[in-house]
Amino acid sequence: MSAALKTFRDFLYATMESCSPHYKDHHDHLLQLSKSSLQPTETCTHPKTFKAICVDCGQRMDDEYGVAFDYITEGLRFSNDEVSRLKRRNSEYLFSKEKLQLVLDLDHTLLHAAKLKRLTAEEMCIKNEEDSSEDISNISLFQLENGYLVKLRPYVRKFLQEASEMFEMYVYTMGSRTYAKQMGKLLDPEGKYFNSRLICRQDLERGMLRKTLNLVLGQENGIIILDDTELVWKNHSKNLIVVEKYNYFNEGKSGSMNPKSYSEKKTDESETNGVLKNLLKSLRKIHGLFFNNPACRDVRILLGKVRSEILKGCTLFFSSDVDDLCRFWNKAQMLGAECTIMLDSSSVTHVVSSNVGSNNSCRWAEEKKKFLVHPQWINAAYYYWCRQPEEEYFPVLSIEIRGLLLQAEELFSVRAIF
After folding, report:
1. Please, are residues 340 and 349 in contact by the beta-carbon 8 Å criterion?
2. What is the pTM of this model?
3. Is pLDDT above 80 for 207?
4. Average pLDDT over residues 122-150
5. Cα–Cα distance between 186 and 153 in angstroms, integer?
6. How many CB atoms lie within 10 A of CB 205?
7. What is the model's pLDDT at position 58?
8. What DSSP assignment string belongs to 68-96?
């Protein structure tokens, strides 16, 4: 090996280690794995290149050779074979440490970022609530210099702390690299959880509008995804847990179809019984099943298994007033419930209706002492990964019933006068 090539290669590895305070913690073992593939020049398969130069033999390569891993070090590319090797070896390493991998979306999953100019008048006052403390690890509301206000989801810091004990974690956002690093700093100010594992839209192939696991250095049987947008993971739906959108700000929306936001109501998602707290319980369960059962080491199978137990034992009859019936029917079946079109007292446990008192099935449920729930009860179980108390999801009064009650109140008031 020439002295010049050795100097270049040593420079690359030093760059990979010191390009940011993140990389050395990112993968000490990954660096060793990459070094272990060194080959003599005459047989070199060019497993990795840096700035279009093969790290092992010094040959000039095409700029588009292999797969770019700029989120690790700008200019670093691995061949397809090397990516497969690193995925396999990294998973083996993590499994030996009893760790899986967790890929996390940012917007509406871990936080909500909104432009100040889009906030409603009621929301603008919360700017003054921003904490000026230098210790950002205890702050949840941030005003950024670029005109954004960022609210972290309740329980997110505890979630990241506990999840990091079971998972190697990635951030995956369709935002820019600057945005990813900025949000990563707010969520992980000490660089303990993500390090340089911040994948953004610049890392995707040109024109790609969907997220993939191609850049996550691990095998898919050990990767779980949390994201509020299902469509962007169309090719990895079995790895995905769909998260309920976190909408803290209203962002100028108004009208009956857009109720007041958390910020307008001066409240927030529950810290003790919110989405992240409940999802952490499910992640812990899946992690335990994975490592306690060597015969089934595939999170895709385990996710389906755990999900199908949430409403197991429930038989649902859907009232005719339920909009988007197919969507709720399919979700209920994914959660393990039986769905039927027969109103049979011996099997039906729940009647699902949007408006109480508006049809015979609601009256039947009350007479037979069956659970009467709103369709949102199914959504809550789907997003929280646990069966929710039925009494908290009672159908709303129908417009017709409300009208009759108002008429009765008015008539009672008139009679009271006389």
Report:
1. no
2. 0.86
3. no
4. 76
5. 12
6. 9
7. 87
8. E-TTTSTTEEE-HHHHHHHHHHHHHHHHH
